[in-house]
Amino acid sequence: MSLVLFLHGEHFTAMGRPFLDRLGAGRDLHAPLHPGYDGTPPDPGFRSVDDLAYRYLDLLEELDARDATLVGASLGGWVALEMAVRDRSRIGRMALLAPVGVKLSGREERDFADLPFMREAEAARTLFHDPARWAPDHAALDEAAVEALALERQWAAWYGWKPYMHNPVLGNWLHRARVPVLLLWGGSDGFAAPDYGRRLAARLPDARFETVPDAGHYPHIEQADATADAVLAFLESA
Amino acid sequence: MMQVWHFSEMAYHPGWEFLNEGLRNVIPSRVYDPETGADLYHRYLDEWALCDRLGLNIMVNEHHATATCTTSVCTIPMAILARETEKARLLCLGMPIGNRMDAVRVAEEYAMLDVISRGRVEMGFVKGAPFEINPANSNPAELEERFWEAHDLIVKAMTTHDGPFNWEGRHYHYREVNVWPRPWQQPHPPIWMTVASPGSAARIGRKGYVIAALNTGYIHTPVVYGAYRESAAEAGIAAGPDRFAYLCIIGVGETEAEGKRRAHQILDYSRTTPRVQPQFFYPPGYSPAGPTAAMIRSPDRFIQRRDGSSFLMQEGTVEDFMAAGVAFAGTPAQVVEQVEEFASAVGGFEHLLMMGQGGFISHEDTVANLTLFSEEALPVISGM
């Protein structure tokens, strides 16, 4: 089985573990943490999703990957798209979980909810289908745990503040991502609506769009098994 | 010798009653009536112009998308006052250079003001309050870096007099920087910065600029001043008291009760400061993760009294703020005594930034406050 590279999203990285355990079982899974998220502040010159894309293209080369599978969640899905439009020679397929990165609407509309400027409770409702179960209770967590969440927010800003969570020209080059793509979307995603995913699928050369019921923006967190089932079925078919 | 500066935020207080928690960022401008606003602008400018006759200096600032401060462009009142006054020093504290994407324009504005005022400009550079990130849409995770690049570029632009130079930095790109006019003061107007943390105070200490602590009171002020002194000493800079400024609320009256009433009214400035939706206080990366996490867990803003106890900023009485060293109030003699005690407790400063107007205080009371202060307190305070 060829290599699987998982590219994590901007928030709640640690909560993706059960999904990764399913994805990695019996497979050559690589799930690096993005610079910053790994506890080491990135070099001052390393600060865009372009940098992440080149870094992981280098990684595929170092590993001499052939026919690799990219699985990317949100920000990680954006990184995968940036990789595929640059060099798809080592990429066999991509399963993208509510990827951001492409501007589809007009200048006075938002594709992605303005999370940093929402109240905590509203942000939780935006991100999760069942916030009562999944959104962290900041008052109940210890200081270190909230600090870890604050650091994830900091790196999300580092990579995606302006333009907000997208690359204005990525949409021009999606025709270059000529690999089979599964776009998997939480049916209750309030951060990037499922309709955004359908429109993105239509812009990609070979994409299939599916929704995961009872999940918000992070289906691999809220519905780890259902998401893993869908991704693994795609891996076997494509 | 102590200098005193009168500061006002040019508040649109008629809008304050409309929204409880949303005075900043989300408050719709339909709340603002331009006719009332024009009257207020002229009133506040008159109060600053009065300072020129009273021997007080002038301080302006800027905030955005808020009813608490309608100085959205700090150089506009500076420009009006540069022409309308003759003696007062004009301090802008300050220009949020990390949120203004055109640093060369900042250099041009300050240089022009310095020449028009014949060298009376004091040039403040600030990072800006956390809730300023939202209207600026500047990346909070790289604000510090952008701030210092803007600083470097502005200083170079004001001090280069032999034609264009190249600047291709991380945040600012100009291939032909050539600022006209050159400033009146050489090599450039004095630089001021505000501080909230010992870390930023230390960085400013190495430059030897004037640092201003804003409403930091008895407990926190010595911490930031101390960090500044230490790093200035390491850099071989003699940090005399003229390097230190402190912003407070001052109310004076013929009686103690009248002075306290005025301070109480001005203190609505402090009480409205936290009337903002909590998430605007901690944009991601604006502060290190530790303090950010603390604000996520509990966004309430507390002020510490001198004895270490604390009170909620929105609810403080004039006595609370006095106990914290944030407000000085009473008769002129009492205020002199309070300022003296505070200055000696925090290690001394030579710039008293006096919020002599704020909140719902009337024009008549503001004029009386400034006049009485300048006649009876200023002569003593100047000698400190």
Which descriptors would you attach to this protein?
heterodimer, A: 238 residues, alpha/beta, Rossmann fold, 6-stranded parallel beta sheet, 13% strand, globular, B: 384 residues, TIM Barrel, 8-stranded parallel barrel, two-stranded antiparallel ribbon, 13 helices
Provide a quick synopsis of the model.
By secondary structure, chain A is of the alpha/beta class.
Return the CATH architecture of the domain at 3-88 and 111-116 and 209-382 in chain B. Alpha-Beta Barrel
* Distance between the amino and carboxyl termini of chain B: 6 Å
Helix content of chain A: 25-40%
Greatest chain-chain contact: A-B, 26 and 26 residues
Q: Biggest sheet of chain B: strands, sense, closure?
A: 8 strands, parallel, barrel
Order of strands, main sheet of chain A, comes to 2-1-3-4-5-6
Q: Give the biggest beta sheet of chain A.
A: 6 strands, parallel
What's the β-strand tally of chain B? Answer: 13
CATH topology of the domain at 3-88 and 111-116 and 209-382 in chain B: TIM Barrel
| Proportion of residues in β-strands of chain B | 15-25%
Question: Roughly how much helix do the residues of chain B carry, as a percent range?
Answer: 40-55%
CA-based shape of chain B: globular
Q: What pattern of helices and strands is seen along the backbone of chain A?
A: EHEHEHEHHHEHEHH
The name of the CATH superfamily of the domain at 3-88 and 111-116 and 209-382 in chain B reads Luciferase-like domain
CATH class (first level) name of the domain at 3-88 and 111-116 and 209-382 in chain B: Alpha Beta
Discrete helix count of chain B = 13
N-to-C span of chain A? 13 Å
Computed structural class of chain A: alpha/beta
CATH class of chain A: Alpha Beta
- Low-confidence segments of chain B: none
Could you tell me the mean pLDDT of chain A? 97
